[in-house]
User: Fold these one by one.
Assistant:
Number 1:
Amino acid sequence: MATWSSEALTALREAGLRQGGARRAVVEYLSRQDCCRSAQEIHDGIVSAGGAVGVASVYRTLETLAELRLVQRVDVGDGLARFEPAREDEHHHHHLVCDDCGRVEPFTDEPLEQALERAAGRLGYAMQHEVVLRGTCGDCR
Amino acid sequence: MATWSSEALTALREAGLRQGGARRAVVEYLSRQDCCRSAQEIHDGIVSAGGAVGVASVYRTLETLAELRLVQRVDVGDGLARFEPAREDEHHHHHLVCDDCGRVEPFTDEPLEQALERAAGRLGYAMQHEVVLRGTCGDCR
DNA sequence: CAGATTGTTGAGAACCAGTATCATCTAACC
DNA sequence: GGTTAGATGATACTGGTTCTCAACAATCTG
């Protein structure tokens, strides 16, 4: 079983795309994250690690990866676009957002997942889905 | 059983807020919608119907209404904030987003709703939730 | 391996949804 | 009707995201 990063790089090649420094850097950075990151965080993370990528390339790469279904776009309503690797099954999760501090954390719930599968099937619609639960996190309570 | 608009206006008054032209126009416009609308759409809708509201007032009113839990903010990941009346039970729904044309349409699914309730309870977390399913809509297929 | 080709990259400008400012207006209270 | 604090709207501003374009480099070819 290949890692997500090698899988992503292979998929890029198969799509007829080249592997420039920016794409490699973004894929490598994302593969080390366990939950979603904003484009700025990704950019800063790469730069502060000694990399040299432009913001534009980060956005372009994320868009490309999203089109290939290699990353999942996550929107929690704070005006930032976040992205995370679209891994198979075991890493699949959804998000809790704290209305007070804005913190985003992942959660999983198997029954919910099954209900989603069935709903999507019934509607003949979705391959990707996103669930956002809002409330007050432990720290803020 | 009161309509959503009169309910919303009452809630505004009870919160010690006045009912200016802008607030009334936004509430009235929203009450006639069956699914979410962006702030721009709301503004344009009111203006093209002969109303005279500033964009700033639309945003301010939406924020106020959201704080009072009278409107639900919906984020489908296209960089626009959408809003819809937060009605009780029967009108509660989630959203399907077409990856091709970007169209947003509502759907309901009772089993999914129950799974959400249980998941939220287990996590001790959420009062509000939002589900977005992505795929290709009938027209684009 | 050098050279050609063409997709990729990065800096900076442009764009645009959303927010802040502030002078004017008006809803609510007397 | 007069007063006053909250509401409104035109406009300037902010910051995330996208566009532009010249320089660059991944891949292919000979």
Number 2:
Amino acid sequence: MTQEDLAEIMFPDVSETISDIEKKYPKRNLDEGCEVTRFAPSPTGFVHMGSLLSAFEDFKAAKDTNGIFYLRIEDTDSERTVENGIEGIIRDLANFDIVPDEGMISEKESIGAYGPYIQSQRKNIYHVYAKDLVRRGLAYPCFCSKEDLDETRTIQELNKERIGYYGSYAKCRCLTCKEAIDKIKNGEKYVVRLKSPGNFNNKIILDDRVRGKIEFPENDQDIVIIKSTDQLPTYHFAHAVDDHLMQTTTVMRGEEWIPSYPIHHQLFEVLGFKEPRYAHLGLVMKIDENGVRRKLSKRKDPEASVNFYHEKGIPMEATKLYLMTIANSNFEEWFLNNQHGKLSDFKMDFSKMSESGTLFDVEKLYNITKNYISRMTSEELYDAALPWMKEYDCELYELMLKYEDYTKKIFSIERYQDKPRKDYSCFKDIRNGIWYMYDELYTNLNYEFQNITDKQEIEKILTLYFDKYYDINDDKETWFNKMKMMCDELGYASNMKDYKKNKENYKGSVADISTVIRVSMTTKSITPDLYEILKLLGKERIQKRISRFKEN
RNA sequence: GGUCAGUUGGUGAAGUGGCUUAACACAUAGCCCUCUCAAGGCUACAUUCACGGGUUCGAACCCCGUACUGAUCACCA
């Protein structure tokens, strides 16, 4: 009984050889320096902020170098698999312009010549490599039960020894081929373990692209490579086989993977694969209610879900800008110095990635969004907000459609100037900013008058203003001069400086007068430029609103 | 317990031995401008880089130790 026999009995269905497999994955025809990266989620149906950031960085690294970005689905754990989970992931990524060059493009379809891109469909491939390992005496079947493993663990804890399946604790590694074969013939369940050639006292070094050199003891654990339940590989084994075959150049993943590097290093070595480069990314954190810093959780934190941003109407481009500022610390300054340049012109740099966990800052996102929206043209804003309204605010959507031109004019207020108005941090804010411009929404009025609240005085001001002074054709300067003239006529201060010095000489100021007009036309004491608003409202609406106020 | 990582203001961070009396941005506060608001302008906001030692003419930056935070030690990824 030889290892050859053992391999045969463990993998009777494997007839292909390694070289058969390797032939199907020819060397990629890419120039030096092109990065091949991948996003490899479990099919859970959605991506959260942390994985979106990682996917974004993977994508960016590939695009920056004219390389390849592919989407591989890691479904070796049925627990994490959700029906139609792949579609959800593809949709979430596509919402941020992250479209794979290769890999899954829908629930069932994929593109690219290095597939299948779903791990459960690659079972035979893993088995070819596992079989070869057994044949070479570098892997073996392990029949230990959960209880056996627990027992060793208890002993190790008691003796204050390192925990795990290694050295003399790796009982099944000493089984002879005959013993193993007999057990298998007996129908005993087993996993396949790596027969680790490592020594804990040896050192290995990872040259991480973001963290530099990290030293570890060599792996000596006989880790499981094929599970007994479904004969699917573990993450470690699948990672080695897939990233070798698919020729990933840089593996980008969360820092929680750093400790398993020794395993991966050994697997690549034992399998004779060239190791990819690694970039271990800092986790995305938040401060929770107790002031404790912790990993952003998709379960507990609404802002961890990409849907959160979608529902608020944060433009995808703005989110990308924010992701880039988290991804690379030098991006923000670059963006400022390049007249708000295009994301594609910025080259991401691994050495500028954060090593410590980044705190996710919603305020900062809003700030970026405000700036972003303020720089759009009114047409762009209209086009971007419309689909969002359709989904989340039907009423306003209908009005925007019905009064397209008028709406764009509303969006134009204080937009085309050196420093445009920044008052929308998301599309959701739009309603609150403009609803009063539409007659259809101008109902249930609640006037927010400030200093002047006397109805008679207000009516007097309105009558005088609109009968005698207001002319829709006036330019802004004339408009304001007339406002001041009226102030003088009514005993209000037309000059704010003078008013502040000598309040007692006046009934109020030009500010009070404009507030009266502003509130009676919009109900709100805070609005954008009043001159623009009156002009847009037009004579007819103004008249109607005066009457509306008087009736009130 | 073993292994590994991280630690610069409220936040993201720049910084890799002298140009740092620590950049820039967000947030916050005050003032100015001003028809409201937003914007804008100005100003304030870490005498100090987790702590303790050491190396050096000189340290946030190099070395050693300690502390704290996090990750990991599954037939989960």
